[in-house]
């Protein structure tokens, strides 16, 4: 049987590694998908397989987080830049030159 | 005073000058020092927003001029953010402060990180030519390519031997239409397609018309669906091929592929479908749908650009005359070295799509509902282009018309607000679209539509209660 500790650890690692992605869309996808995947399969019978799959997916996330940090876009998404501020500021700030 | 000098030393202009000329107090008048000090003053008293909103005092005008001279200075201190984050990108007359949101998944999709992960080994160490039969590099590339082929086949319910890699769905479409027509041209001279097909299909049909083939372009109904009775009546004894796309890229309508397949099978006509927008998004099976040829595009299912595939049925065998012959690769149907890295990417994209299809569909349905209800709730005069029923329309493609608003103006306005990029008021959502993006899209669209409507004389007239139909438009 798979230890609940390990599953929890894997989940936390997914969230932690996912947050490191510098691409807004990919980061949000990983967080959403990990949350969904771990919640859905909480009581799944083939937990061993899923955990093995999760371990491999986690390694993939770690590798790709590095690749995207090297080659991804330098600038942040407009959604991140204007999240906490008034949305109107983003519109006023971008002008036709 | 000390800190001011230290700060001044950081200015590039100061570093160029000798230290001695700056030891004199600020009031002394060497022009260079004065300019430097002015610049420093400008920086330290810069208001926290853009030049356009500064007052008209002489100091402010000077600051504005200085700011326009030195783009590095203004954003650096403007909001207390770092240099990298504040560099505005200026492209085609639009200044962008951040990466725009991407809502055009029908044009292309980003690579899934799993696909990038699968492709990187073949871009670095495993660079062999899959057609090299004599050494290890070739063997490993070939094995990867065949695995990818198998994954693509599994996604559509086919056999791996029936999948040929091409450079994309455009090439697959050309190959299907021109290839089948040319091969069977002795006895069959007629092709049927629809008016809403992709440009490459329509161009291929026109090319065939110029070489003596007859082509029937079936009209579609108001919601984009093909009329099956019209199709039945259009089939002639010398019809070689019927080509109808599975999911339309403009309005997202899902054609009744099973019914069309039944009709074609009963009348002994080949059925080709351009499934570029459908593969990996809706469940497809070439045997259930009785499809004989299918075009697959890599970059529409979160795979790489430059690769696609064509499915050619083997039982009963579909023969095509190759476009790229002479070389013999891919069973002589498509010569040229198969790009192993791209094929592996396509295979991985297919595998991931199959695994994630249910989750993606649920997510996209939720996003589409939110977007549609948000826009229709906050605006009047919004019309959905395409069938309302989600069984007949792919939810990731939401095409709306806004009354009294010109499409081009709306797109231009949204571009400046960092929203990419609907063409023709089409919102393309996919696996990586977030709820936040949808909410922002609703907000921006509502703002811009209202803004444009305020400027529209037609809208004014409608608000006053004038019936548009009673207006006599004068001819110029």
UniProtKB/TrEMBL annotation, chain A:
Residues annotated as domain Complex 1 LYR protein: 5-60
Superkingdom as given in the UniProt entry: Eukaryota
InterPro entries the record matches: Complex1_LYR_dom, Complex1_LYR_LYRM4
Protein name (database record): Complex 1 LYR protein domain-containing protein
TrEMBL record, chain B:
Domain Aminotransferase class V: 101-417
Keywords assigned by UniProt, alphabetized: Iron, Iron-sulfur, Metal-binding, Pyridoxal phosphate, Transferase
Family, per entry: Belongs to the class-V pyridoxal-phosphate-dependent aminotransferase family. NifS/IscS subfamily.
EC number per UniProt: 2.8.1.7
Region (Disordered): 45-70
UniProt source species: Dunaliella salina (Green alga)
Cofactor: pyridoxal 5'-phosphate
InterPro entries with a match to the protein in the record: Aminotrans_V_dom (IPR000192), Aminotrans_V_PyrdxlP_BS (IPR020578), PyrdxlP-dep_Trfase (IPR015424), PyrdxlP-dep_Trfase_major (IPR015421), PyrdxlP-dep_Trfase_small (IPR015422)
Molecular-function annotations in GO: transferase activity
One of the Pfam families matching this protein, by short name: Aminotran_5
Domain of life of the organism encoding this protein: Eukaryota
Protein name as catalogued: cysteine desulfurase
The keyword Iron appears for this protein: yes
Comp. bias (Low complexity): 52-65
Key word Cell inner membrane present: no
